[in-house]
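Aggregate trends can hide what the representation actually does to any particular protein. For completeness, the protein is quoted in full, as a sequence line and a line of structure tokens.
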Amino acid sequence: MLTALSHTSYVNEQKRKNKNIQSYERLEFLGDAVVELLVCTRLFENYNNLPEGIMAQIKAAVASEDVLSEIAKKLDLGTFILFGKGEETSGGRNKKSILADVFEALVAAVFIDSNKNLDVVSRIFLPLLDNYITMYLKGKKIFDYKTKLQELTQEIFKILPDYQVSNEGELFKAVVRINKKIYGKGKGYSKKEAEKKAAEEAYKKLIKEGIKNE
């Protein structure tokens, strides 16, 4: 379990102290596959009428960095991750990519410790994933806000959203304009994350305003 919580920055610091510790990266690789298997099995067994295309979309969404990092935050996993000083000060505990990777590493660690008993892993982690499967099926969550916003602006305004991204130290800041008007802003540890947050804010604002073509 120590390995599942050890970031590479921590491992490198420990190596300089002649301590042989592995990072979570190999576990994360395995955990990624186990998470997808849990989601795919649930969709295949419990939703007989879902076409393959929809199942693929839901699998991709539920096993995504956004969802897994959100689950990790709810579990407060960030508190337990072991970082080196550099990554600690740069906000590693709040980075989506790290939180998602650690969640996957934790899934893999349980899988291995249970002698690869998928039933054990399912009992622990599937209820967390089930919540998101249900939300996507009921339309309470959207798969991709950037795509939805683009579809919406093309349909209504006949134009594409205009994104502008700037760097603020460790964070990226994105602004999205439609007809030269700012509709959304977002911040993140990557350009992609900042744009997605800006797109989500813009999409929700347009829906709330009733999408009037000015």
User: Anything to note?
Assistant: The beta strands are 162-168, 171-178, 181-188. The longest helix spans residues 25-46. The first strand starts at residue 162 and ends at 168.
